[in-house]
Amino acid sequence: MNQQVNVYYMYCPKESRTAGTYHKYQQKLADKILNHGLINMFGIDGTGKIIEKGKYGKPYLKDMEQYQYNISNTDGMVVCAVSDGTVGIDVEKKKDFHQRILRKCASSLETAYILETEDRKCQAERFFRLWTLKESYIKMTGEGMRVPLKEVEFRISEKGTNADVRENAQIICSKEGKFYQKEQGEYWIALCTREEVTVRWIPVVLNEMSEIQQIC
What distance lies between CA 14 and its chain's CA centroid? Predict the structure, then answer.
C-alpha cells in the first residue's frame, strides 16, 4: 500500500504588508497549516512542537521524526506537505524571468524545452514547472543548493495544453525520486518523495477564529 502525502495549500494576498511583515505573516500561516496537517493526518497536536534543522538545514520535528513535513511559500501562496515519509515541496508563481538564468539552472535539453516556443507566457509556465520540480528534489534530499540544479535534469512528456493534461504528464528525472505536480491557477506546486505515494491536494483557508479550515 502506498504511503499518503497531504499537500495543503493556501492563498495569502500580500495586500498592504511590507516585504518583512509579509514574510512573517506567511511563516505564521505555514505554522498553522502544519499544526492542522499533523492533527488532520495523524491526530497529533503540533502546537508544542520543537523544530530543529538537519545537517544541511532541512527542518524536522524534534522527538517526532516519524512525522515528516516540508513547507514552501511564494508571492500569494503557502504550501505544506505532511507525511510519514520523506518529502520535498515547492511552489512558485508563474512570472516573467530572465533567460540568462537558464545557464545556471537548466540543462541544454531543458533550455530547448523552455525556448522552443516564442510565447513568453508559455516559456514562464515551462520554466517554473521545471524550477519547482528541481527545488522539490533538493528539498526532499535535504542537500539544498549543494546539488547543482543543472545536474537535476527533467524530461516532461505531455500531449495537449490544458491543465489536466499538464498535471498528468510523464515526468522523468536524472535523479532518483517520485514527482507530482499541481497547476493551481497562476502557480505550480511540485512534490518529491523517495517512494511512490498517494497524494491529496487540499486547499485550506483561515476561518473567522484564525484557525485553518479545509475547503474540501
Answer: 19
Rounded CA-CA distance 210/188 in Å is 26
- What digits encode the pLDDT tens for the residues 106-128? 999 999 999 999 999 999 999 99
Instruction: Collapse the DSSP code of 91 into the 3-class scheme (helix H, G, I; strand E, B; otherwise coil) and give the result.
Output: strand
CB 37 within 8 A of CB 82: yes
How many residues are given for the chain?
216
Q: Which amino acid does the sequence have at 178? A: K
State the pTM of this model.
0.92
Residues 6+ apart with CB under 8 A from 50: 61, 62, 63
Between CA 133 and CA 180 the distance in angstroms is 8
Q: What is the 3-class SS of 126-192, one letter each residue?
A: HHHHHHHHHHHHHHHHCCHHHCCHHHCCEEEECCCCCHHHHHCCEEEECCCCEEEEEEECCEEEEEE
Number of H helices, E strands in the chain: 5, 12
Distance, in Å, from the CA atom of 151 to the CA atom of 107, rounded to the nearest integer, reads: 8
Three-state secondary-structure class, residue 18: coil
